[in-house]
Amino acid sequence: MHHPPKSPPDTTRTTKAPAAPTGAGAVAPPVQLREYLNAATSESTRRAYRSAIRQFEKWGGRLPTNSETLVRYLMQRAEAVNPRTLDLHLTAIGQWHRYQGMDNPTLEPLVQKTMRGIRRLHGQPKQKAKALRLEHIAALTRHIRSQPDSHKQRRDLALILLAFFGAFRRSELVAIRVEDLKWEEDGLIVFLPRSKTDQTGEGVARALPYGTAEICPLRALRRWLEHAAIQEGPVFRAVTRWDRVQEKPLNPGAVNHILKGLAAACGFDFADSLSSHSFRRGMSTSAAREKVDFELIKKQGGWKSDATVWEYIEEGQRMTENAATTLMASLADKLNEMERQ
């Protein structure tokens, strides 16, 4: 028997806080409890869960549901939807049941085994953002500097250089405020009150030293802030078509748009495969090619997982640290020796 659809798995909508007296043993009021429950999950996660539930309901599913319905859903969507997306849908549906205090049908063996089969038959390689190399950053920098002097030109240069050398995520970039910058004699400390790997709000700091006159994210940043008269608030802001600097910060999605636009203007044939993550991948893989120490790469990017950093290092060194290189050189020596005989 189907029941009317309920809200997506935003637990704050379904958890009721009982009334309680003030003083010792008091329970937080509903509004405060809702605030805490909201803070327990990032907004991006809640948004993804809500979208997943909407897609399930659009297909004809209803919550609560059962394993038989989920298996039908998976079978009908298997060829049209990436398995990773279906995994997210199951997670969202499972979370909904969990916070309703109901049995979780996504954990049923039939559902789990069906999903494993879908992954094996329809699994696709994860599309990774193309890593920006040093020569790409050089081309982007040269192009931006060739443009007429403007607020947008100064902002874009500071954005590109800071994003690459600081290995910032786009959410971190747009969240930086002037109050988060600590200028020192030999560089800049950017304090991030919150980041993807720091959900508890302890804060992390990213250090950037001064570069040369040709390439220096700090000089570019100072120039942008001074010309735009930004003394407080968001560092990277929207700029209108009339080159007026807005009070509001850039939207995270705008970072991708700016990068793709600049890459297309530079004639990069891979512009469509770039995203804000190209900065982080690019910094780490470029550093690996330059033999930068593992710990320094990990520290600069703020990575918690060693495995992630090693993945980037291996990607950066897969041509320079390659068994085939030694074998080809050895074969060339043997061929030369044979020709001399």
> Mind summarizing the main beta sheet?
3 strands, antiparallel
Q: Give the strand line-up of the largest sheet.
A: 1-2-3
**Helix and strand sequence:** HHHHHHHHEEEHEEHHHHH
- How far apart the termini lie comes to 87 Å
CATH architectural category of the largest domain: Orthogonal Bundle
**Stretches where pLDDT falls below 50 for ≥5 residues?**
1-24
Give the full name of the CATH homologous superfamily of the largest domain: Intergrase catalytic core
- Look up the CATH topology of the largest domain: hpI Integrase, Chain A
Q: Which CATH first-tier class of the largest domain would you pick?
A: Mainly Alpha
Number of helices: 14
The best one-word shape is globular
Q: What is the domain total for the residues?
A: 2
Structural class: mainly alpha
- Strand segment tally: 5
Overall pLDDT metric: 86
What percent of residues are in strands?
A: 5-15%
Précis, in short:
Residues 1-29 are annotated as: Disordered. The chain has 341 residues and is mainly α. Helix content is 52%, strand content 7%.
Keywords:
5 strands, DNA_brk_join_enz, 341 residues, DNA integration, 7% strand, three-stranded antiparallel sheet, two-stranded antiparallel sheet, DNA polymerase, domain 1, 2 domains
